[in-house]
Design a protein that fits this description.
single chain, two-stranded antiparallel ribbon, 113 residues, alpha/beta, 3 helices
C-alpha cells in the first residue's frame, strides 16, 4: 500500500506504475521488482528466476542483498538505511550512481554450498 503513494509519479519522462504480480511470468517489461517481506520464503527462488535479467530488485527482507538482491532497506536505531549489492547490479547490467553508493552499506552475495 505504501508504494501506491508513488503511483503515476513521473521520473525522467516516464510514469511509474505499481502492480502486484502473482507469478514471475507476469513481470513482462518490468524494470523494478519490490519483493515484500510476505515473499520471504520465496526470495531465493525469485532471485534465481531473475538471474541476469535487467531488473532492479528491492526488498526489506533481512539478508536479501546477501542472497543476490540489489537494494535492501533496513531499520537501524529506528532509522531507515539501505544496503546495495554492486555485484548483483552489475550481473543485471545495471549501474548504481556513486552518490547513492556513498550513502549505502555495500553487501556482497554470499556463497552457497
Amino acid at each position: 500500500e505504501s508504494l501506491k503513494t508513488i503511483e503515476n509519479v513521473q521520473v525522467k519522462g516516464r510514469h511509474l506504475s505499481i502492480r502486484p504480480i502473482k507469478t514471475l511470468q507476469e513481470l513482462g517489461a518490468s524494470h523494478i521488482l519490490f519483493v515484500s517481506s510476505s515473499e520471504k520464503h520465496r526470495a531465493n527462488e525469485i532471485l534465481r528466476f531473475l538471474d541476469h535479467m535487467k531488473i532492479l530488485t528491492i526488498s526489506e527482507i533481512e539478508g536479501f542483498c546477501g542472497g543476490g538482491g540489489i537494494i535492501n532497506f533496513t531499520l537501524v536505531n529506528n532509522k531507515v538505511h539501505f544496503e546495495i549489492n554492486v555485484e548483483a547490479a552489475q550481473k543485471a547490467g545495471l549501474t548504481i550512481s556513486s552518490k547513492l553508493l556513498r550513502l549505502a552499506t555495500i553487501v556482497r552475495t554470499q556463497e552457497t554450498n
